[in-house]
Amino acid sequence: MNDRLALSDDILMSIEKPERYIGHEVNSVVKDKAEVQIRFAMCFPDVYEIGMSHLGIQILYDLLNAMEDVWCERVYSPWVDLDAILRREKIPLFALESQDPIRDFDFLGITIQYEMCYTNILQVLDLAQIPLSAADRGEDCPIVIGGGPCAYNPEPIAEFFDLFYIGEGETRYGDLIALYKECRREGTGREEFLRRAAGIPGMYVPRFYQASYHADGTLAAFTPIREGVPATVVKELARDLTDTGYPLKPIVPFIKVTQDRVVLEIQRGCIRGCRFCQAGQLYRPVRERDVEQLKRYALEMLKNTGHEEISLSSLSSSDYSRLPELIDFLIEECGKQKTNISLPSLRIDAFSLDVMSKVQDVRKTSLTFAPEAGSQRLRDVINKGLTKEDILRGARLAFAGGWTRVKLYFMLGQPTETLEDIRGIAELSNEIAAAFFDVVPKEKRANGRVQIVTSTSFFVPKPFTPFQWARQCTKEEFIEKAYFTKRAISEQLNQKSIKYNWHEADASVIEGVLARGDRRLSRVLLTLYRKGCFFDAWSEFFDNDKWMEAFAECGLDPGFYSSRERSLNELLPWDFIDCGVTKEFLIREWEKAKRGEPSANCREQCQGCGVRRFDCGICVEGGQGGKVGKQP
Amino acid sequence: MMLRIKFRKYGPIRFIGHLDVMRYFQKLNRRAGLDVAYSGGFSPHQIMSFAAPLGVGLESNGEYMDLQVHSLVSCADVRERMNAVGVEGMEVVDVKILPEDAGNAMASVAAAAYTVRFREGRTPRFLEHLPMEQALRTFLERESIPVAKETKKGVRQVDLRPGIYELSWDGAALHMLLDASSGGNIKPALVLQALLDSCGERLMENALRITREDAFTQVTDAEGKPHRVSLNDIGMDDAQYAARTARISEGPVQTAARTAGISEGPVQAAAGTDKHPGEKAGDLP
After folding, report:
1. Where are the domains positioned within chain B?
2. Nearest neighbour of A19 by CB, restricted to B16, B205, B206
3. Exposure of B27 in the CB half-sphere (CA atoms within 13 A)
4. Would the ipTM clear 0.95, i.e. be above it?
């Protein structure tokens, strides 16, 4: 056993949850340092409980550790209590398994799942005692690699990374590691390794590209400045998920983390094409996993972890074609093992209600609908293929089945939204409450009342969506919309049954700035970090005033990035990335959105989005009836 | 039937808190493929009970968990299965089958033995002029040792003296046997603080490295005399269980006699292996 811990007992006894920092979890991988050539630290730049819940890291951890001469370890953002101690005592940030300093590793991989963790990337680099800017790193520093959904617009954080891996991690790490070993053997140095790495599909090395700007601040050109570096980086994807492997022995944390269960990814991608949704575009085409393999995986993972719960993971589980068969299997097996089944992202209909009533205590759980917009008109704009009738039918069935709690999720501030659309949120909430009183006779109402919890978030336009050109509302507009929603709900007949929650507006605006930002924002992030800001995804640490100061000090206007509608001709900072769907498709969808026209989903009819060239998933299986639409 | 599982907790694992140790075993029992009994209802849970919770940072050679199972191959098999899927630092050292009339681990703890060492540079200053043995003798001669004890309801005055059953020094470490019952639990640090108080010193922060050695319950022998017995000795190992099962199948056995028969052996064993047999706390070297 590695008894040596990076932190002294005095430190461990003085901080919250020392278990976050001691490693030794079941299924964590410990290798003999003498036997490995490559040390890889995989980081999720947020606190342990969040980072440990992320499936992507578990997949990469498994994949890298399957390579005999690579030892992949984990590192997370130390919580603020330990952060202060590490700074004060100058203790370098360490990996959990070996407890060795990260700065001595060959690679530091950082998964970037949301924009508000950008300052935590700086925290991790800083605590690891690695220079924040890639340009300042010497030969003895780890190669810092970024990946994950935010890598699809890496520009705001380009300065801090040596390399970005664009796309799914399963395909190219082998090549990258082989190249690294080759360069080490030849003694080429860091710069040459990066030059050669830029030639591997999916790799983006920011230092080899130059951006220039028009007088109005928009991007004029974005070009490679080294020979042989590609002008366009095409995303990587795993064509067949059946052969990619899966972490069958995921780490079992000692402390309760957000995802304290077996997570079974049943498919990747989504057929729906909601126009606000970035994941729905990035992970195209939909690729299902083989149902027989999933059944084996489920049993094996339950056995290897001892978890009491299993959850199916996908963007829209109801669209998995073998769902009934898989669920029947799980209900039977989990019943024997006293294992709970959790089924997020299910469309509410007779099938899902029947399943849920078998696996959950109806009285204790609530049903979730995500209409995202209050009116049918706006739902057509955003291409959310859910009608009021669908929702009311689902709610009626649920109330008849004993459910009394319903959660509703909406977004405020989507393109073309009017006050009428917002009023629709209140009216729909009211109609659902009315449906309860209609369906459930007085003598059968458990507490006499139905609970509707209506929540709104604020719309953040994201790259590679049809709404990437859209204007985002200002903080003031958002707050006004939230107040209007609140008032509209209070005017409803059943207002006493409806509880209304809304998100913070200022953080949504910052998220919008970072999501569609360019290289110049690296300066803002550095300035902000030097003011002591990180953990911006945590409302208790997010400080909007500091952000505004940082923008001002860098001479940048956040409104330029968020509340400006971009023209279709504008060169966007992420245009050098080819994420599969074409710009022509996104423009078509943006124009249809403005006309209020929905689009069919991938299974109904191909919309010619451009990912057919990857020749996999639903594009080759075809939709029902094998209809394939026009290709651009 | 109810199993009594004795485990050690050491190394980095000492930082795992009590609730997380419970979660750890819930998952470990499933990985080990034990035939665990569950409660009913929509969220069934394993029927298990832990003896006195161990503070974060303390090591232990004698932690106990009672676990109800429907069946088992043997106690040795349970131990092997558990250790095969556990982490180093949380080692199952013994598995026994509890007699039906045994109290659960949580309720039956009466005392716990500890070894306490001072961290480097944090030994009490009084040792420069006063030998530890002498300090302990003076300390234990006191009729009462009133201290302020923090409880959930606030600070309360308690007398430590009746709950200190043994306290000795071997030149490098202190050995203590303290009240660990739910009503009167005494933490080793509290005793050290009181000792240092009596010498006009404060206990330095995180000065102690504490190992819990074992937990004890109170039993009454055939003559009605109370004994402290290790929780581990309440249960039956594979051989004892087989012997009892054989005896039962021979014919009706009176409960009282059976209980005496099972507890006789273990009490003797405890006296033989335990460094701190139930002597009076005052009898110090």
Report:
1. 1-97, 109-285
2. B16
3. 28
4. no
Nearest CB to A13 within list B42, B89, B206: B206
CA distances from A570 to A169, A247, A469, A573, B181 (A): 30, 42, 9, 9, 74
> A55-64, pLDDT tens digit by residue?
999 999 999 9
Q: Show which of residues 309-348 on chain A sit within 8 Å of chain B, judged by CB atoms.
A: 337-338, 340
CATH tag, B1-97: 3.30.70.580
Rounded to a whole number, what is the distance in Å from the CA of B19 to chain A's nearest CA?
9
pTM of the complete model: 0.92
Among A141-145, A278-282, B24-28, B275-279, the range scoring the smallest mean pLDDT is B275-279
CB of A446 within 8 Å of a chain B CB? The answer is no
Going by pLDDT thresholds of 50, 70 and 90, the confidence category of residue A4 is confident
Query: Of the candidates B77, B96, B60, which has an alpha carbon nearest to the alpha carbon of residue B188?
Result: B60
- Go through the domains of chain A in sequence order and give each one's CATH number: 9-234 (no CATH), 261-359+600-632 (3.30.750.210), 361-517 (3.20.20.70)
Q: Is A341 within 8 Å of A359 (Cβ atoms)?
A: yes
* Per-residue model confidence as pLDDT tens digits over A462-511: 999 999 999 999 999 999 999 999 999 999 999 999 999 999 899 999 99
